[in-house]
Amino acid sequence: MDEMAHGVALPETPREFGFFIDGEWRKGRDMFERNSPSHDVTVTRTARCTPDDLDQAVAAARRAFDDRRWAGLPGAERAGVLLRTAEGLRWHREEIARWEVLENGKPISQARGEIDHCIACFETAAGAARLLHGDSFNNLGDGLFGMTLREPVGVVGLITPWNFPFLILCERVPFILASGCTLVVKPAEVTSATTLILADILAEAGLPAGVYNVVTGSGRSIGQALTEHAGIDMLSFTGSTAVGRSCVHASADSNLKKLGLELGGKNPIIVFADADLEDAADGAAFGISFNTGQCCVSSSRLIVERSVAAEFERILAEKMKKIRVGDPFDPETQVGAITTASQNETILGYIAKGKAEGATLLVGGEPLESDCGRYIQPTLFSGVTPSMSIAREEIFGPVLSSFHFDTQDEAIVLANDTVYGLAASVWSKNIDKALTVTRRVQAGRFWVNTIMAGGPETPTGGFRQSGWGRETGLLGVEEYTQVKSVHIEIGRRSHWISS
Ligand code: NDP
Question: Is 238 in the pocket of ligand 1 (CB under 6 A)?
């Protein structure tokens, strides 16, 4: 019998995966073993693909693109595959949620919710596949008609991170498929399972062989090789700003492939004195603790009006103490395990720096005692100054830094005092303040009196060093297309050489 955690079976032996090229499973020679962050049992074994495996995956995606087995279909047929995939995800919801928990450490209730979002991504992209279109220019004079065609970019390389292995995958894949592109995916090595499981679900839904290919292995080897591969027309990368920068170099040094980058963030949450403080405190607690703060849009800088700062921090600290941290298979758990040992060290390192640099610890600040897994209590620092490392650097953990302001302009300056521009939120019952801040703070995603709300209909992406391009929504499909301008002569063109 498999060991049980809260009624969910932990695997007695690790599940072994091959990698997926041209509609077929292949066996790896060298294998990577993943231990679950919450129970420390070996849960999966995945292949360490070679550069030759990658070449074969790119070649399969190229054949599938060039012979138009996918791009040549009517949008309605591509939509059909995406809708059947959404249905497949409903059937496989529990299986996918379980592997997300086992590899990533996130709470099971959260994993289930994320899969519902993934289903919505496939359904939204299905609509977009049917609606994708160019434009026409009927104003070029009676002799000329113009139009723009939207054509798929070609073979897309997709590199995804470990914090939302399935969600980020599904915020990309259906939109890439809707555009008519084919792809080669490289998931983060520690969380590869659900990207591989999706291969079978797509195939069952009727996706032609060669359109979705998966290679596994480390970022430094197979990821880097993918960024440099001249057979890739566009690369979509989600992860750290440092690796995002190396993708830019790799593109420049290879074939100038188009890039979509979703990178780091140091996202502000601005609370005015006239906000509903209970509501805003709940939002702040959620914004920093969701997914253990391992979230590119985590609101990690609290910027609160000085007149209510002490009261607000007291309410917030009380709420943060009540967050249920622990075994991710417990359906009551709100915050699970830290996904990797190195991320755990990084977070604890920042907490130590915060203390050493003189910030005041209001709550948390310690790892939680546990006989299985790595857990950190959601942490709040007050009295943070802009030069401290916890104020400037992306921690990617449940650590919130609080700053105080006196005027609206000061709040805006503090919010923009970062190299990033991924997400922001503002809390105020005064529409003028809320709208002014929304206009003047640099961020690709904005929330007013709410946080992390929204679905796949709206585009996501960053300003500044948080990235290039947009994912999801209609823009998220257009991102994977290129525009061709076409001019058509009506009648006989006037000749250049006189007869
Ligand atoms: P990385 O940027 O290293 O990893 C993200 C993805 O890129 C993974 O699939 C990884 O593969 C791959 N990768 C790593 N190195 C290369 C490379 N040279 N070329 C191509 N692909 C590569 O993030 P980390 O996992 O190291 O996390 C470090 C920090 O990055 C975090 O603390 C956080 O600040 C930030 N981050 C931000 C994310 C976001 O959503 N914006 C997501 C993840 C991290 P593999 O893991 O197999 O090595």
Answer: yes
Indicate if ligand 1 lies below 6 Å from the C-beta of 462: no
> Which domains are present in the chain?
4-263+462-484 (3.40.605.10), 268-448 (3.40.309.10)
Label residue 208 exposed, middle or buried (CB < 10 Å: 0-12, 13-18, 19+): middle
pTM of the model: 0.97
161 Cα to the center of ligand 1, angstroms:
6
Question: Would you give per-residue pLDDT tens digits along the chain (499 residues)?
Answer: 356 677 677 899 999 999 999 999 999 999 999 999 999 999 999 999 999 999 999 999 999 999 999 999 999 999 999 999 999 999 999 999 999 999 999 999 999 999 999 999 999 999 999 999 999 999 999 999 999 999 999 999 999 999 999 999 999 999 999 999 999 999 999 999 999 999 999 999 999 999 999 999 999 999 999 999 999 999 999 999 999 999 999 999 999 999 999 999 999 999 999 999 999 999 999 999 999 999 999 999 999 999 999 999 999 999 999 999 999 999 999 999 999 999 999 999 999 999 999 999 999 999 998 878 899 999 999 999 999 999 999 999 999 999 999 999 999 999 999 999 999 999 999 999 999 999 999 999 999 999 999 999 999 999 999 999 999 999 999 999 999 999 999 999 999 999 8
Ligand 1 centre to CA of 243 (Å) is 7
In the residue annotation, 262 being an active-site residue is answered as yes
Contacts of 330 (CB under 8 A, 6+ apart): 6, 107, 108, 324
Cα separation values, 279 from 320, 429, 450, Å:
13, 11, 8
Distances (CA, A) of 214 to 95, 196, 249, 250: 19, 7, 24, 20
240 C-alpha to center of ligand 1: Å? 5
Using CA atoms, how far apart are residues 162 and 392, in angstroms rounded to an integer? 23
Q: How far is the CA of 160 from the centre of ligand 1 (A)?
A: 8
Can you tell me which atom of ligand 1 is nearest the CA of 343? 32
Residue 187 CA, closest ligand 1 atom number: 9
Distances (CA, A) of 183 to 3, 377, 380: 37, 39, 42
Q: 163 CB under 6 A from ligand 1?
A: yes
Nearest-atom index, ligand 1, CA of 168: 40
Mutation probe of ligand 1 site: the residue of 243, 294, 419, 471 with most atoms within 8 A of C-beta: 243
